[in-house]
């Protein structure tokens, strides 16, 4: 897979492949397209722990990445706090550890929508204290370019931030 990514493609914008093909060498093959890669979809369940370690490398080294779809991926927000705010994702299709119940996902999305519509992000007070819904909403709020999000149930479309 990495030989194909490095040798056969130039200006790769979108890539979809099976989780079985996700290795560190595949990640480096994708990073070779860091200037042009805007969409990454990995299908199937990622079973190999070493493959999981290359994912943050992928999105950190691909500054133009706008769409990430790994529906089997469960993000641990506590483990990756420093990475998230700088990402320019417009579409995100992942799960968040602990955010499993449909009502919690709905509550999270509702908070994000309310916060985005309010326009005064600095004065926001979480509705549910330190619940997983609130922590997830804060994470999603840090992704200022995000428009579409799927967290395990359905796709949600987020309102834009108000213009200042």
Task: Provide an overview of this structure.
By secondary structure, the protein is of the alpha/beta class. It has helices spanning 2-7, 24-31, 49-60, 102-118, 132-142; strands at 14-18, 39-43, 67-75, 91-96, 148-150, 155-157. Strands 1-2-3-4-5-6 form a six-stranded mixed β-sheet, with no helix packed on it. The longest helix is centred in the C-terminal third of the chain and has 17 residues, at 102-118.
- Inertia-based shape: globular
What are the secondary-structure elements, in order, as H or E?
A: HEHEHEEHHEE
Question: What is the end-to-end distance?
Answer: 46 Å
Integer-rounded radius of gyration: 16 Å
Strand order of the largest sheet: 1-2-3-4-5-6
Helical stretch tally = 5
Query: What's the story with the biggest beta sheet?
Result: 6 strands, mixed
Q: Spans of 5+ residues with little confidence (pLDDT < 50)?
A: none
- Which secondary-structure class do the elements indicate? alpha/beta
Task: Please provide the count of β strands.
Answer: 6
Average pLDDT, to the nearest integer? 83
User: Helix amount, in percent?
Assistant: 25-40%
Range of strand content = 15-25%
């Amino acid at each position: 897979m990495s030989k194909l990514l490095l040798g056969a493609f130039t200006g790769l914008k979108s890539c979809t492949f099976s989780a079985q093909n996700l290795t560190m060498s595949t990640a480096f093959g994708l990073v070779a397209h860091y200037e042009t890669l805007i969409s990454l979809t990995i299908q199937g369940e990622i079973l190999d722990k070493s493959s999981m370690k290359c994912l943050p490398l992928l999105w950190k080294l691909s500054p133009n990445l706008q769409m990430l779809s790994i529906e089997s991926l469960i993000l641990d927000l506590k483990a990756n706090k420093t990475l998230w705010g700088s990402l320019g994702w417009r579409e995100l299709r992942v799960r968040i550890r602990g955010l499993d119940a449909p009502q919690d996902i709905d509550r999270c999305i509702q908070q994000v929508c309310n916060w985005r519509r309010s326009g005064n992000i600095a004065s926001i007070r979480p509705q549910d204290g330190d619940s997983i819904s609130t922590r997830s909403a804060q994470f999603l709020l840090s992704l200022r370019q995000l428009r579409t999000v799927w967290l395990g149930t359905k796709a949600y479309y987020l309102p834009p931030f108000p213009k200042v």
